[in-house]
């Protein structure tokens, strides 16, 4: 059983804690946040410890798990990841006991969160700090870069490729062998039949199309 400290104090962080606690494979011993951003002392009766004080407060061995969602098109999660690495902390992954994983452990980057019912098929490769929500399917040979957020019930066809910092909305389908460029925002229920080659696009509809004069970095999710 690992001792885990969740970085983050949002509703997303709380849900992550509830999944981990329910499955009883690991123990959440604390939440953490940078001292200047802390607004409460406890979450779910678990203490919130300033990031700057973790080593002095927690004596037992622990790993950090990053409970940050898609804020700033996943850029905040990247910032926190590098902060943890800079301070020589171990960054843990959470792979739900009900996720179905058919790829090798070394194909899944550190900091990955795979929620209940997610399927990661044969020969899929994921970079660091990807979030795969419940019911999503990476069928086979999918390539997933770093710091992506894949919402619930998304389906990737075989050999699909998603680059970095993307947000894929609920119930999206991405056809086999499609590429999705950096920082693409794909709206709920879109059916992506053609590659998105330019970064920072906003994509909606069935069949999916890029919205003119829309940039993902200044579009609210």
Number of separate domains:
2
Order of helices and strands: EHEEEHEHEEEEEEEEEEEEEEEEEE
CATH class of the largest domain: Mainly Beta
What is the C-alpha radius of gyration, as a whole number of Å? Answer: 17 Å
Major sheet size, sense and barrel closure: 8 strands, mixed
Q: Could you name the ranges where pLDDT drops below 50 across 5 or more consecutive residues? A: none
Q: Would you kindly provide a written description of the structure presented here, covering whatever features stand out?
A:
This protein has two domains: 84 residues, NAD(P)-binding Rossmann-like Domain (Rossmann fold, 3-Layer(aba) Sandwich); 120 residues, Hexapeptide repeat proteins (UDP N-Acetylglucosamine Acyltransferase, domain 1, 3 Solenoid), CATH 2.160.10. Helices cover 13% and strands 27% of the residues. It is built from three helices and 23 strands. Strand 3 and strand 4 form a beta hairpin. The longest helix is centred in the N-terminal third of the chain and has 13 residues.
How is this fold's topology laid out?
Elements (H helix, E strand, L loop, with lengths): L2 E5 L3 H13 L3 E7 L8 E2 L2 E5 L3 H4 L5 E4 L8 H12 L7 E2 L4 E2 L11 E2 L4 E2 L4 E2 L4 E2 L4 E2 L4 E2 L4 E2 L4 E2 L4 E2 L4 E2 L4 E2 L4 E2 L4 E2 L4 E2 L9 E3 L4 E2 L11
Parallel strand pairs: 1-2, 1-5, 2-4, 6-8, 7-9, 8-11, 9-12, 10-13, 11-14, 12-15, 13-16, 14-17, 15-18, 16-19, 17-20, 18-21, 20-22
Antiparallel strand pairs: 3-4, 22-23
